[in-house]
Amino acid sequence: MGVARALLSGDDEATAITDDNLVMELWNLLVGVTARDFELRWHRDDVPAMLDAAGEAKALGLDERGEKRGTPAHAQWNLALYEDESLVVVPGSHRRPRTEKERAADPYAAELPGMQFVHLGPGDVVFYDNNILHRGVYSKGVERATLHGSVGVVGRTQQRARNVLQHGVGAWVDRCDFGGLEPDVKARAEAMREKLVRMGTEAGDVGFYSKDE
């Protein structure tokens, strides 16, 4: 949480993030498919591939100069329990629309210019913007068990609700049992859960992107 707060905070005390500003979003376990090779297509989590460059820039929160506006709305992470090289990213792509080569590439292209496999050892964690251009690659016979989570910033309801709620978190989050946690951590978790429920209630029908958005 300390790293997440640092990543989400601005450059002065007025924009510093505290636990009171954080909303629980995702907390899943990414498990390897060991019987066969499996891979996901290149994607951004909340910017559909059908958008043109102008639509992508808008969805990424870029201004007319192509620069990112304001502070981040979320921090997402993967924390590996075993060796993990399943995440592939194009560094810096969360700050720009796709290039012509990226647009023309096969959705399952094995290579994109500048891409990197993210190597994590047990206990390593990587933080990233979920709108970075990325994919998952699972190799036959290689076990993967990686904790996958994110927290968001209070007040970004519409911006984050569609991205978070499409994963069905609202169907189970009220059943989470935080009873085994240390008192201060339990209080933090329960407060962040309450804000997630509130976010889902206030967001209304978040829907999904259409071709015209």
TrEMBL record:
Listed name of the protein: Phytanoyl-CoA dioxygenase
